[in-house]
Amino acid sequence: MKLAIAFLAACVTGAPAGAQFEVVSVKPSPPPAAGMAMSPFSFKGGPGTDSPTRYAARGCLLRILVQKAFDVEGYQIAGLDGRNQYDIEATMAPATTNQEFHEMLRSMLIERFHLQAHRETSEATIFRLEVGKGGPKFQETLRQGSDDFFEMAQGL
Predict the structure, then answer these.
(1) Is position 34 within any domain?
(2) What is the value of pTM for the model shown?
(3) Which of 49, 79, 94, 108 has a CA between 20 and 30 Å from the CA of residue 120?
């Protein structure tokens, strides 16, 4: 079975347009701690939060910023496989709406990362799970902490 899926592809080119943050800082994140492949990432502030005039993203992948800016899922993005992480701090007007905030993120991506997005439709193979004849053959999972679970673990 085939299904048309909209992909968001990012390419290098473009010029900033639309709403802009009052001030924005974009820096590469510090290297991850020893033994870790990546630093943990976090988002803080922005419209609708307790800090509506400030936004901070720590250890954020470019792919996640694109997801947030364009309001898409990760599987809808093609061409951003990098593992570089960034720290972003931005300020905006107190009355900034979520829509304006996303527009500001898009403008920042265009200006700082020279990204431009376009939408295209692509066909992809998908699989559908169906219950077979006779119904499912699942067994109830034993809860950890129950006597049955303890007895089963002892038998291993």
Answers:
(1) yes
(2) 0.65
(3) 108
